[in-house]
Amino acid sequence: MKKYIKVTATFDCDGNLLPEYIYWNDNKKYPIDKITDIRYAASLKAGGAGIRYTCMILGKERFLFLEENRWFVDAKDK
Amino acid sequence: MDIKNAVDRNKYKKDRVILHSDCNGFYASVECLYNPQLRNKPVAVSGDAENRHGIILAKNEIAKKYNVKTGEAIWQAMQKCPELVTVPPHFELYKRFSAMTKRIYSDYTDRIESFGLDEAWLDLTGNIKGSGFDTAVEIKERIKRELGITVSIGVSFNKIFAKFGSDYKKPDAVTCITRQNYRDIVWNSPASDLLYVGKATKNKLNRIGIYTIGDIAKTSPDILRNHLGKWGDLIYGFANGFDSSPVSHINEKSDIKSIGNSTTTPRDMKTFDDVKTVMCVLCDSVCRRVREQGFMAKTVGISVRDNELNCFTRQRTLEEYTNFTRTIADNAFSLFKKSYKMQIPLRSIGVFVTDFVHDNIPHQISLLQSEERLMQNRQLDKTLDTLKKRFGNYIVRPAILLKNNDLSSFNPKDEHTIHPMGYL
Predict the structure, then answer these.
(1) Is residue B404 part of a domain?
(2) ipTM for the predicted complex
(3) Domain hosting residue B409, numbered range
């Protein structure tokens, strides 16, 4: 399921946009420990396409997508 | 088309590497990407049936199996496939995806020529390390991975055969048309598979016993010219692989030849007042687009279709170049009044202007017309343009439009339908 989320991101000196924190349902802030890959990709599960950041969050690998000016993830259905 | 340039056999010393990439069921594929629950269903993108725009604009592969055709009415498609899911178009999204495909193409060459939103030619000559086929496969896979849609790509030594190749095998495929295999693949296909051979040309060819592209290639150009005029030479050259038209540079803007808008109204237009209302909206959009491009036009045209689907076009050359909404609207309407007596109610009308010059060229002041009045008109149009740009299309409107709200509540400038190339 596609879920748009709030993200804190920074531009580094080279102009790269890097997400640093994501905010989940309870507005709790989770730091992104590491970004292991950045590439253009489609998300067939969530339905969308943009820049895909492969992030390590709480020791788990998660895809975070930047689609135009919004961030989304593929959230698990409850 | 410049025939000499299109089929010049000696133009290129070495064979070119031309790709034609065609996004499969483009609009429907993008809709299915964004709505995963639709992916296993027959899906078609269609206009709004309530407003009588109900035709199929694109369909996915599953709908294609039911023989749903682009351009047919929704009810016809539903008869073939009752479980068909129809969704409205989202042109902004398609434009974004079209731009994303161009971004990928531009990693391989700067000679990219768009053919609608969903198709493009790429000239890779001298730009690739491997073969044209390998690069085509790489592009196809990148589009699938990065955009989530599929393309079919034709690879050949000219644009016409490359386009043939992309239509030959779909979806998600690459077809090479080489000097060695084109006689086996291209020549055995029906004449109508050749670009620029439409229904009328096909019928003419059939009447003289020409059914395949090979038949065209083997017929004397004199015979073809006798029956088709200069198009005879052109399709003879295309069928034999002599097409030498270049692939444009990505930044080359195609020359705008005409600007127009047309609409099918929610109900038939029965009176001159109805027509005037719709024309007023269309002319406003056309003239704003002309002014945006920095043009003035000298020819105004109208296209008319009645509710029995008979259609005609008329055009008129003006005395002066102009981009004033009022002048163009007055001329379009008087042209209409002169050409049609409202004997049958109308289903759709269109207005177009052509014969452009740039609006900054010096012009002769008229002896008879008041120059002051012209300046006022120019200022008025400019002010209205600014207001509509800032606050939306409906912020200020001529009073005539309030009388027929059902016919005037549309915005052709921003809401127009972009038909996929396959439909045209």
Answers:
(1) yes
(2) 0.90
(3) 258-423
Confidence band of B292 (pLDDT split at 50, 70, 90)? confident
Please tell me the least confidently modeled range out of A47-56, B81-90, B149-158, B369-378: B369-378
Nearest CA of chain B to the CA of A41: how many Å?
A: 4
Residue B137 lies in a domain: no
Q: Are B121 and B134 in contact (CB under 8 A)?
A: no
Alpha carbon of A33 to those of A20, A58, B238, B357, B413: distances in Å?
Answer: 8, 7, 59, 59, 47
Q: Would you say residue B422 has pLDDT above 60? A: no
- Token pair belonging to B271: 């009176």
The answer to whether position B95 is within a domain reads no
Contact B215, B177 (CB under 8 A): no
State yes or no: pLDDT of A21 exceeds 60: yes
Nearest to A52 by CA among B148, B378, B128, B350: B148
DSSP class per residue in B257-310:
-EEEEEEEEEEEE-SHHHHHHHHHHHHHHHHHHHHHTTEEEEEEEEEEEETT--
What's the structural domain count of chain A?
1
Q: Which of A47, A49, A68 sits opposite B36 (nearest CB)?
A: A47
CATH number, domain containing residue B292: 3.30.1490.100
The pLDDT value recorded for residue B424 is 39
- Average pLDDT over all residues of chain B: 87
Determine the average pLDDT of the residues in B132-138: 95
Domain that holds residue A7: 2-74
Name the domain count of chain B: 1
- Count Cβ–Cβ pairs < 8 Å, chain A vs chain B: 31
Domain assignment of residue B264, yes or no: yes
Q: How far is B147 from chain A (nearest CA, A)?
A: 5
The yes-or-no verdict on residue B207 having pLDDT over 70 is yes
Q: Does B148 sit within 8 Å of A44, measured CB to CB?
A: yes
Over range B399-420, report the average pLDDT.
73
* Cβ within 8 Å, pair A68-B33: no
How far apart (Å, rounded) are the C-alpha atoms in residues B46 and B417? Answer: 10
Contact, B55 vs B72, CB < 8 A? Answer: yes
Contact A41 B33 (CB under 8 A): no
> Could you tell me which residues come within 8 angstroms of residue B188 by beta carbon, excluding any fewer than 6 positions away?
B212, B213, B214
pLDDT over 80 (residue B24): yes
Rounded Cα distance, B166 and B162, in Å: 6
Cβ–Cβ contact A50 with B under 8 A: no
Torsion of CA B96, B101, B107, B111, to 10 degrees: -100
Per-residue DSSP letter, B14: S
User: What's the pLDDT score for residue B357?
Assistant: 84
